[in-house]
């Protein structure tokens, strides 16, 4: 948990050094009047280093409140720890069984049409992505998936083929990939030769 917090703090510190985010955070701080208060307090009692540290903390706090970091550097939560996951495993198992029974009853037995959530779930499973990976995708990508009706297996197969062809075209034009292919063709990863000297 502490390691997770450390990673999160490092990510926030890094974002505070990126000009794009730093400038936006400073604009927000000026609008809220937070930077002026730090400077006014600093005139009477604090040194320049203390004022700078206070301004840095204000910028980091604004970045924490405005940016939603996902993935390995997301804000740690106690419920994501292994101990709590183990304690909550029976509950999650029961809720999954109930959800699965409803799924079979509604869509296999009754033959209902899929809603948006169900469609996105089927697309995510087809793409073999975890929930957090799929949630980190932008909304316009999800809308594109829905417009192309990727929950239908045939449409997903066509989409997958298009993506593979696009990747091959990209790699064919990439100079690093060309250099790697030449190296593999000419020298290889380490050939064994049986030449007597």
Which stretches are low in confidence, meaning pLDDT under 50 for 5 or more residues running?
Answer: none
Helix and strand sequence: HHHHHHHHHH
Q: What do the pLDDT scores average to? A: 80
Number of strands: 0
Q: Structurally, how many domains make up the residues?
A: 3
**Gyration radius, to the nearest Å?**
26 Å
Percent helix range = over 70%
The secondary structure category is mainly alpha
**How would you sum up the global shape?**
extended
Distance separating the two termini: 60 Å
Tally the helices: what do you get? 10
Instruction: Give the amount of beta strand, in percent.
Output: under 5%
Protein name: DnaJ-like protein subfamily C member 25-like protein
GO biological process, one term: protein folding
Subcellular location: Membrane
Keywords: Chaperone, Membrane, Transmembrane, Transmembrane helix
What key phrases describe this protein's structure?
10 helices; mainly alpha; 74% helix
Your description of this structure?
With 197 residues, the protein is mainly α. The protein has 10 helices and no strands. The chain has 3 domains: 1-36 and 54-74, no CATH class; 77-112; 114-186, no CATH class. The chain has helices spanning 2-17, 19-32, 34-44, 48-66, 82-109, 116-126, 131-135, 139-147, 153-173, 175-186.
How would you summarize what this structure contains?
The chain has ten helices and no strands. It has three domains: 1-36 and 54-74, no CATH class; 77-112; 114-186, no CATH class.
């Amino acid at each position: 948990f502490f390691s997770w917090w450390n990673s999160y703090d490092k990510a926030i510190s890094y974002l505070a050094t990126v000009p794009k985010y730093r400038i936006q955070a400073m604009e927000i701080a000026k609008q809220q009047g937070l930077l002026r208060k730090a400077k006014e307090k600093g005139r009477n009692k604090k040194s320049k280093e203390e004022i700078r540290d206070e301004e840095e903390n204000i910028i980091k706090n604004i970045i924490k409140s405005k940016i939603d970091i996902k993935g390995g550097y997301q804000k740690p939560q106690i419920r994501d720890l292994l101990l709590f996951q183990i304690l909550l495993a029976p509950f999650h198992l029961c809720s999954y069984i109930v959800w699965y029974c409803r799924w079979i009853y509604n869509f296999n037995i009754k033959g209902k049409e899929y809603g948006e959530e169900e469609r996105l779930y089927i697309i995510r499973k087809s793409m073999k992505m975890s929930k957090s990976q799929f949630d980190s995708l932008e909304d316009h990508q999800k809308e594109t998936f829905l417009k192309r009706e990727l929950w239908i297996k045939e449409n997903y197969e066509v989409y997958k083929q298009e993506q593979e062809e696009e990747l091959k075209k990209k790699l064919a034009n990439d100079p690093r990939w060309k250099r790697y292919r030449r190296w593999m063709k000419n020298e290889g990863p380490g050939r064994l030769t049986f030449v007597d000297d």
